[in-house]
Amino acid sequence: MKVILTKDVDALGDSGDVLAVADGYARNYLFPKKLAIVATEGSMKDLQARIERIRAKAEKKQKEDQHKADIVTAIETIALEANASDTGKLYGAITTKELSRILHEKSGLLVERKQLNVNAPINRVGEYTLYVKFSSKVSASVAVVVRPIASAEPPAPALYNEADYADQDDDR
Q1: Is the dihedral of CA 18, 15, 139, 25 positive or negative?
Q2: Higher pLDDT residue, 149 or 21?
């Protein structure tokens, strides 16, 4: 089936492209998400005017995404302190939800956690690279440095206190 893409689709094409795709892919994915329309004679005639509008909209979005990427890139490094053991293992991993909140505080941009990708799980002290994907063409990266808190004591384990259970009868 021939379709005209109305939005950029990763690994398929840019908005305005005329492509031949499988019928099921078009009916079940592209059409419900309004990513494409059927390439009929009427839509092909309307394609030029539509392409101009789509490309102008795509260029505007790309400029906005590039501006956001520039803001994120200007941050350069995010320094975090977390409770860690002597071996450098964190007592709790740093999640993309926390990183999203920190990026919002530092840049003022609302970045969803699904836009974030880290090269490895942040569960140890060290340096990591955080990738922020704004669109299929625009992304930015920020260094994340995790240091242990200077006076980090491991959480105290719950201890069994015999005095609490001394007055109970053992008549089992």
Answers
A1: negative
A2: 21
